[in-house]
Amino acid sequence: MNVTMLLTFRLLGFGWNGEGILIKSTSQSQKLIAVWTKIEPLPLVVDAPAPIIIGIVIFGIIHAYIFRWVSSAWPAGILNKGLRFAGLVFVMTFLFWEFFTPFNLFGEPLHLVGIELIFWACIALADGLVISTVIGQTA
Q: How would residue 139 be classed by pLDDT, with cut points 50, 70 and 90?
């Protein structure tokens, strides 16, 4: 999840120097830009990312346990189980997050929320497929 987040949100979305499509879009919510770049304290992922990176690894471990718990009810196969788990994570976590926080709280425009949902779909796929590959046959 960390690597996929780095490639999507950090590289494409925010850019290494704040030049990414989510920050430089003229339609982006000024509230969202201020939270990520101006309002102190800046988000930990910007200012001191180590706790966030560790937290995402912990979430990955929790996801693996949840996968093991629910995947026995799914059809066999790494791809079947990985896609189902990715869909579960995407809908239950990332879709809700985008609706409630960037759209609701920050007033982010729908086309940028859509781009973020594509990023989150990539992250969910990486999460589901890696977990399924590593433990899917034993679950």
A: low
Q: Please classify residue 52 by burial: count the beta carbons closer than 10 Å to its beta carbon, then call 0-12 exposed, 13-18 middle and 19+ buried.
A: middle
Q: Which domain holds residue 11?
A: 2-135
Arithmetic mean of pLDDT, 96-105: 96
How distant, in Å, are the alpha carbons of 12, 47, 79, 103, 126 from that of 38?
A: 20, 12, 42, 19, 31
Q: Is the pLDDT of residue 108 over 90?
A: yes
Q: Report the alpha-carbon distance of residue 123 to residue 6 in Å, rounded.
A: 10
**Other residues' Cβ atoms within 10 Å of the Cβ of residue 136:** 23
- How many domains in the chain? 1
Report residue 41 as tokens: 């304290």
